[in-house]
Design a protein that fits this description.
Keywords: Signal. This protein has 233 residues and is mainly beta. The chain is built from 1 helix and 18 strands. The chain has a 4-stranded antiparallel sheet with strand order 7-8-17-13, with no helix packed on it. Strands 9, 15, 16 and 18 form a 4-stranded mixed sheet that branches.
């Protein structure tokens, strides 16, 4: 049975004529289509405008790990390209007074590709530190709950550290702060703003907050923050 199947396969192959899709050409262009289309173009009514190709063998959206294919019609016109900007790249808290919290603000502006969303993550290279290695710890919050994942309230004058808030759904109120993920501790950057739909000139306000105790060593502390904005395909 195996030999017969093989023989029939060979005969069918030899007798089959080549199969071509649609082919168009002129003195300036050659166009080859991978499928036969019954019609295509732009249709409109009082309330709608539609462009399409009709006759695709298997129209729809198909995906597997790392690949997404949308075939059969135009899903989204690429009106907007992805962009991301930060208005303030140098945050300076000035001279700090113990038990008096100091804040600073920067604004992020994001436009996602047409029809797509985005997400923004943040991380720090280390806690704020002196060259000697002395650090201002990352904030723990009034209830000792704050981490790179969780925001905790921070209103007490005796709660010390450094943290941030964003005017997004990831923070319950403007008094909730969390830590930046710490690169030096191999912590993974965490999302603090995102959308599943298209945004244009979307602004995110970041509030940085710092408070020190009277025992904190004097000096110039610094670190750097890494923001990563990614379109969601």
């Amino acid at each position: 049975m195996i030999k017969l199947y093989y023989l029939l396969s060979v005969i069918c192959y030899l007798l089959s004529s080549p199969i071509y899709a649609q082919h168009f050409e002129s003195s300036n262009y050659n166009i080859d289509w991978g499928n036969f289309n019954m019609t295509s173009g732009r249709k409109s009514s009082t309330n709608y405008s539609l462009t399409d190709t009709v006759g695709q063998n298997a129209p729809g959206e198909y995906s597997k790990t790392g690949v997404k294919l949308k075939s059969g019609f135009q899903y989204i016109y690429p009106f907007d390209e992805f962009s991301f900007a930060i208005d303030n790249l140098d945050i300076n808290f000035g001279t700090l007074t113990p038990s008096v919290a100091t804040t600073a603000v920067s604004t992020l502006t994001t436009t996602s590709p047409s029809g797509l969303g985005f997400q923004i993550t943040a991380q720090e290279n280390s806690p704020l530190r002196l060259n000697s290695g002395t650090t201002i710890p990352d904030i723990k919050g009034d209830n000792n709950l704050a981490s790179e994942f969780v925001a905790d309230t921070w209103t007490n004058a005796t709660t010390y550290g450094f943290g941030f808030n964003a005017n997004t759904t990831y923070f319950s109120t403007t008094n909730h702060f969390r830590q930046f993920a710490n690169i030096s501790q191999s912590e993974v950057p965490q999302i603090f703003d995102s959308s599943n739909t298209h945004v244009k000139n979307h602004t995110t306000t970041i509030t940085y907050k710092i408070n020190i105790s009277s025992s904190q060593a004097a000096g110039t502390y610094q670190n750097y923050i890494v923001y990563t904005a990614t379109p969601q395909y």
